[in-house]
Amino acid sequence: MTPVRLLPLTLALATALGAPAHAESLLELYDSARATDATWQAAKATYEASIPRAAQARAGILPSANLTASQSLTHFETNNPPTSRTFPTQNAVVSASHPLYRPVARLELRQAERRAELAEYLLTTSGQDLIIRVSQAYFDVLASQDTLAFVRAQKTAVAEQLASARRNFEVGTATITDTREAQARYDLVLAQEIEAENDLRVKRLQLDTVVGKTGAQPNPLGVPIELPAPQPASPEAWVSQAEEAHPLVLQRRKEVEIAQIETEKQKAANKPTVDLTASHSITRSPDGNATTAANIRPRSTSVNVLFAMPLFNGYLTQNRILEALALEERSRADLEAARRTVAQAVRTAYFGIVSGQGRVRALEAAEASSQSALEANRLGYQVGVRINIDVLNAQSQLFQTKRDLARARYDVLLGHLRLRQANGTLSPEDLQRLNALLAK
Fold first, then answer.
1. Collapsing DSSP states into helix, strand and coil, what is residue 385?
2. In angstroms, rounded to a whole number, what is the distance separating the alpha carbons of residues 325 and 328?
3. Any idea what the CATH number is for the domain that residue 165 is in?
4. pLDDT number for residue 289
5. I want to staple 356 with a disulfide (CB 3.0 to 4.6 A). Which of 70, 254, 311, 412 is the partner?
6. What is the DSSP letter of 301?
7. Torsional sign, CA 66, 72, 77, 80
8. What CA–CA distance (Å, rounded) separates 18 from 219?
9. What is the Cα–Cα distance from 427 to 123, expressed in whole angstroms?
């Protein structure tokens, strides 16, 4: 592990720009985003809706009961003998049924349970995406703050060099060219400062949007900071974890199970069904009916076992079976494609961290060399063996290297999160570990 030091420029910059006095940790801002982010809330609602949806399928194998009641008024006339009567009739029926054998309904219940698990994987994917979005916006703000701080430090250095060139020109030890070169470089840095200020403003707005609050101020990195290497230190170990943990792989695997159940369900459509039904009815005619004027109140109770056997439906079931088999094969192909995509993403993320750490080490060496080069050019300018543009170029190179080094550190830290997202193990606990690297 390589110890990396970051200049505490962002703390002073945050105060200068009017940022909130209380800087917030990555974990605090993630908690805020979980409570307000529309995408996460929509995924959560979809998952919560899948639970009762799965329970709905259970109704197909459970008993059902109904109560119906009616009242009618009948007018009856006859010529022989002449009769004209109007009488009311009231009727009430309680009926119940219980599936004894319904293979399709049981398979539909299994499918619904699998789809509920599928919704859970989609929720996991959305949660991991939220972690990355918050972290990306968080480090983008820190990187923009660093860039602005380095630009302002460069402006100060260039202003000093411009003042020196003017003094040397006034005493005759330098030409007007040195002054004009320093002035041109100073004007360029002013333009870069305006651009950096606007970029920081935009990055802060993006962070506010993600976390659902205004004026969010991230903690800068602690000093010093260590950039850990990926553990385990093998891309294939990360790929193996992805096979059992990545929500996309689990989702595609669950879709294969759902497709297999669908094939079974279509085949089961050729099987018979058996239901137990019972009913009890009461009819009341207080003024009689068409044949009698007496008060009558008949009752009836029935219990039945209903057997139904499909015989022929125009080859509908056979073609649905063929369709289900083709879709099952497609789901297997989607699973294999997901495995390959995830494995490639894991390897890319892993080697991205490794190369990022190498880039950090190289930029650390470049920073030290650029600092030495600047000091040598300043000394050479003082003794007359270097011109002003050499000093200005050395200053520009140093601050550009500092900016690139700060960005590279953030990329490595974010790369660790992306690696865990790539293999499907990213969780809020990873933010807790990363949070320990941030200033308190």
1. coil
2. 5
3. 1.20.1600.10
4. 67
5. 412
6. E
7. positive
8. 15
9. 12
Q: Are strands 64-79 and 273-284 parallel, antiparallel or unpaired?
A: unpaired
- Sign of the alpha-carbon torsion through 370, 373, 378, 381: negative
Residues 215, 23: Cα–Cα separation, whole Å:
10
How many structural domains are present in the chain? Answer: 1
Query: Does the residue 280 lie in any domain?
Result: no
What b/e sequence results for 153-186 when a residue is b if at least 16 CB atoms lie within 10 Å of its CB, and e otherwise?
bbbebbeebbebbbebbeeeebeeebbebbeebb
From CA 431, how far away is CA 219, in angstroms rounded? 13
Question: Which tokens go with 135?
Answer: 């972290």
CB 262 within 8 A of CB 317: no
Tell me what pLDDT residue 293 has.
Answer: 63
Q: Going edge to edge, which strands form the sheet with 273-284?
A: 64-79, 82-101, 273-284, 299-308
pLDDT at 96 over 90: yes
Which domain range does residue 180 map to? 2-62+102-271+313-435
The DSSP result for 304-349, as a single string, is EEEEE----STTHHHHHHHHHHHHHHHHHHHHHHHHHHHHHHHHHH
Q: Three-state SS for 145?
A: helix
Is the per-residue pLDDT at 331 higher than 80? yes
Residue 279 in any domain: the answer is no
